[in-house]
From TrEMBL:
This is Uncharacterized protein. Residues 155-170, 304-313 have a biased composition (Basic and acidic residues). The lineage of its organism: Eukaryota, Viridiplantae, Streptophyta, Embryophyta, Tracheophyta. Gene3D superfamilies: 1.10.246.220. The keyword Ubl conjugation does not apply.
DNA sequence: ATTAGGG
DNA sequence: CCCTAAT
């Protein structure tokens, strides 16, 4: 107990250590987990800065069968980072940037201002640059020492706000590369404002007091503040982020203020990476793995039970980099992160070792220090099963039609999946074997096109027999 | 707490 | 990926 807390508090130290000695030797699992998301920024930097280490990592990844399970999670991350070095990343980044600007502009008045001044401080500390978007980026990115300092400060500010700030006003944005002093000053400001507010009830417009909570309706400023006190749920945030595109700019911006606030911090890290990767040495990887989304954020926050003010997970709750725009509109799959090939291989290994249904074990031994939950793994297996059946039908057709047939999975993996599927059929995948065979034949016989076969296969697989 | 199943 | 029911 105490030790864990101690570790947590000093995780910044661990960060440094890990970074200095490039060899990553995790001691405790918890520690590793802790470090992992803190390291995100470092890794970004490292990947972009020293191309040598990048290459070595890339080659390492090429043979992910090394069996160093402990390193697996880390390797995956590295790989992802490598992939981030491609133009896709920069593109997403740019978009993010635009998004941010759009958000932030209308609200330079309130907390946005303090936030920005905060940024300015951090940037001027390193290079004393002016106050504009680009200058901020420059200040942060050009300082070679920034990465370490950043994480330290990040931790400090996190602790500081968690312990000092009675309201979660700024806790939404712990990833922000700020220095601790700034954070504190803001906390103090908040207190002052509150004191002021209590002494002068008429000043309710400046800062909404808890009394007003109920009376708040559509009036913009109160509503805006009210959100800050009532810890918005993740859902809530998402809803508004979606609504933002539809609603009028002003109102939406007011409501999603906290969102853009947090964006500020994350933005910095991303812009930094973007800056550092001008032309990029892409194509470092084989080619087959489709680039997943940014994946900057590691942990998928697991469904907070209560959203109280004490919730410490703020860094993850909104660090969520949902760069999957497509699925954004869909209500589900908001946190979707594509499965990489190494992950799939690990999954297959795990299943072949522990069998079906031991998802927790598989998670423990193969996906430890990964954000994949046992349920995720099971789902992936389910999908894999379906996919393998689909491949079966496609394979034969692909010979006739020279269609690319869209195969992100290498054949050996599909083969292994198929073998495993024979050994232990997934519980109750409606007639897992029978229907698959039927699908296969029917697909080959009936349909001669490529994609219709897939869809038909899926449908057949999923169909419930009446 | 884990798992299965459905969306 | 998410949610829920069942265990």
């Amino acid at each position: 107990m105490d030790q864990q807390e101690y570790l947590r508090k000093h995780s910044n130290v661990k960060c440094q250590r890990v970074r200095v000695e490039e060899s990553f030797v995790p001691a405790l699992q918890d520690e590793e987990m802790e470090v992992e998301h803190l390291l995100e920024q470092h890794r970004n930097d490292r990947v972009s800065m020293d191309a040598d280490s990048l290459d070595s990592h890339a080659t390492l990844n090429g043979k992910h069968d090394l069996g160093l399970e402990v390193l697996d999670g880390f390797l995956d991350d590295v790989e992802i980072d490598d992939l981030e070095g491609t133009n896709v990343f920069s593109g997403a980044c740019e978009e993010y940037f635009l998004d941010f600007e759009f958000d932030n502009n209308p609200e330079v008045l309130g907390f946005g201002l303090s936030d920005c001044s905060l940024l300015q401080n951090s940037s001027s500390e390193s290079h004393s640059s002016g106050f504009s978007g680009s200058s901020i980026v420059g200040g942060v990115s050009e300082s070679p020492k920034v990465p370490i300092a950043q994480s330290e400060y990040k931790n400090d500010s996190l602790d500081g706000t968690a312990s000092h700030d009675p309201h979660d006003a700024f806790r939404n944005n712990p990833s922000q590369p700020s220095n601790g002093d700034c954070m504190y000053s803001i906390s103090l400001d908040m207190k002052h404002l509150h004191a002021f507010n209590n002494n002068h009830p008429l000043a309710g417009g400046i800062l909404s007091s808890e009394n007003e909570k109920d009376s708040v309706k559509k009036v913009q400023p109160p509503a805006l503040r009210e959100k800050r006190f009532r810890k918005p749920t993740k859902r809530y945030i998402e809803e508004f982020s979606n609504m933002r595109s539809k609603e009028k700019v002003s109102e939406a911006a007011a409501k999603t203020k906290h969102l853009s606030l947090s964006s500020c911090g994350e933005l910095n890290t991303r812009l930094k990476a973007l800056r550092k990767i001008p032309g990029d040495t892409c194509s470092n990887r084989n080619n087959d793995v489709r680039l997943p989304e940014l994946k900057i954020c590691k942990g998928r926050p697991k469904k907070e039970k209560f959203e109280s003010d004490k919730e410490p997970l703020s860094s993850e709750s909104e660090d969520e980099c949902m760069t999957l725009k497509k699925s954004r509109s869909k209500d589900r799959r908001k946190n979707q992160r594509l499965w990489t090939l190494p992950e799939v291989v690990k999954l297959v290994d795990g299943i072949s070792e522990y069998g079906i249904g031991q998802w927790t074990n598989i998670k423990r031994f193969f996906f430890d220090s990964s954000y994949r939950t046992p349920t995720d793994i099971r789902d992936k297996w389910r999908n894999l099963l379906r996919a393998s059946s689909a491949y079966k039908s496609i394979d034969e057709e692909a010979e006739q039609n020279d269609q690319p047939s869209l195969r992100p999975l290498p054949f050996d993996v599909v083969h292994r999946v198929r073998e495993l599927a024979k050994i232990h059929p997934y519980p109750r995948v409606h007639g897992s074997k029978k229907s698959r065979v039927r699908v296969c034949t029917s697909a080959v016989d009936g349909q001669s096109k490529g994609s219709p076969a897939i869809s038909l296969g899926k449908r057949n697989l999923r169909r419930k027999y009446t």
